[in-house]
Amino acid sequence: MIESVVRDPAAIDECGKGDKRMADRPGRKRWGWRRLGRLTLFALGAIAVLALVASVSILPAKTFQVVDDGGRGVPDAVVVYHYHGYRFNPVCTSTYDRPGSIVHADAEGRFRIPASVHWHQPSPLEEGPELTLDLVYSPRLHATLGTIEARSDRVPGRLDWEQGLLTLADHTDDPAAWDRSLSWLLYVVGDVVQDLPAGLDASPDDKRRLVEATAADLDAFVARHATTPRAVIPPPETWDAERRAESVHNQEENLAHEPFWGPYEERMWRDDVRYLAREPGK
Questions:
Q1: Are 135 and 202 in contact, with CB atoms under 8 Å apart?
Q2: Domain 59-225+260-278 belongs to what architecture?
Q3: Which is nearest to 82 in space by CA: 137, 132, 35?
Q4: Between the CA of residue 169 and those of 71, 166, 178, 216, 265, what are the distances in Å?
Q5: What are the residues facing 65 on neighbouring strands?
Q6: Measured between alpha carbons, how far is 255 from 270 in angstroms, rounded to an integer?
Q7: What's the CA gap between 282 and 204, in Å, rounded?
Q8: DSSP secondary structure string for all residues of 147-208
Q9: Contact at 8 Å (CB) between 96 and 87?
Q10: pLDDT at 94 (0 to 100)
Q11: What is the per-residue pLDDT for 40?
Q12: Do residues 277 and 189 make contact, with C-beta atoms less than 8 angstroms apart?
């Protein structure tokens, strides 16, 4: 048997949406503006905490060792570093930089990058910055490594980021390799004397010593290879035949005018070194 329930019309609220007697029963909880306000404040606080956590990156200290091809530490190694991050951009890659400094290796070729804290826009608008080694340079070996970061590919015999091992070859008797290292050295030192990237935190004395080492490197190159003949450098295998032939032809024409490394290096880099020598301290 189904019983019908007849409600008192007086118990229905004026909008016809609720039973006043049910609403007015003792102990029945009602959602009020005060409780809603507390929940709103709690939600806003949680969002603020999450935004704060997503806006700070803490990078631990990291130690590296620079060695030569024989595995011996390189005590004269000089390192320039900064921090590099990526911004969200649906169209193309966008980046930002944070300042680093200049450090020198100890007697065993080891150097330490200190721990650091970085503020940035909340992820994923900006990824936390990563350590980037712009230059690893040995004046004795006349060799450089550059643009090394955690996401760099491991290069057997040269670079192992996880182990913190960086290997430099001796370019003293290889003028082509020495020239490439000198070119990169000049490029990075040009940024250093202008406090790049991102306002490099380095002392004027560190900058001056790096510029002096660059000038001495060029002097040593010219002295050792003044009459060493230059040769055509084979173009990359990935180039097509026409481009490779054009590269060889251009090099042969250049070699006819400057057959030796000494005069070539003087023309290529001497003015740049003189310019850099005027910059530190400004």
A1: no
A2: Sandwich (2.60)
A3: 132
A4: 10, 10, 10, 19, 21
A5: 110, 165
A6: 19
A7: 9
A8: -EETTSPPBTTTEETTTTEEEE---TT-HHHHHHHHHHHHHHHHHHTTTTTTT----HHHHH
A9: yes
A10: 84
A11: 72
A12: no
β-pairing verdict for 165-168 and 62-68: parallel
Instruction: Tell me whether residue 229 is exposed, middle or buried, using C-beta atoms within 10 angstroms of its C-beta: 0 to 12, 13 to 18, 19 or more.
Output: exposed
Between β-strands 62-68 and 110-113, what pairing exists: parallel, antiparallel or unpaired?
Answer: antiparallel
> Omega of the bond prior to 122 within 30 degrees of 0, cis?
no
Q: What is the length of the chain?
A: 282
Q: Would you call 49 helix, strand, or coil by DSSP? A: helix
Q: What is the model's pTM? A: 0.76
**Residue ranges per structural domain of the chain:** 59-225+260-278
Q: Which amino acid would we find at residue 151? A: R
How far apart, in whole angstroms, are the C-alpha atoms of residue 67 and residue 30? 73
Compute φ and ψ for 184, nearest 5 degrees: -70, -40
CB-count burial class (<10 Å; 0-12, 13-18, 19+) for 163: exposed
Q: What pLDDT is recorded for position 126? A: 80
Question: Minimal CA–CA distance to 215: which of 252, 265, 157?
Answer: 265
**pLDDT average per 10 residues of sequence, the chain (282 residues):** 47 48 51 69 63 71 94 95 85 83 95 86 79 94 89 74 92 96 94 78 89 96 96 92 95 94 95 83 46
β-sheet bridge partners, residue 160: 165
- What is the number of alpha carbons within 13 Å of residue 3 lying toward its C-beta? 3
The tokens for 96 are 């930002």
* Closest-CA residue to 202 (of 100, 83, 91): 100
Report which of 62, 65, 223 is spatially closest to residue 138, judged by C-alpha positions: 65
∠ CA 103-106-107 to the nearest 5 degrees?
Answer: 155
Q: Judge whether 66 and 136 are in contact, CB under 8 Å.
A: yes
- Nearest CA-CA partner of 175 in 247, 224, 234, 232: 224
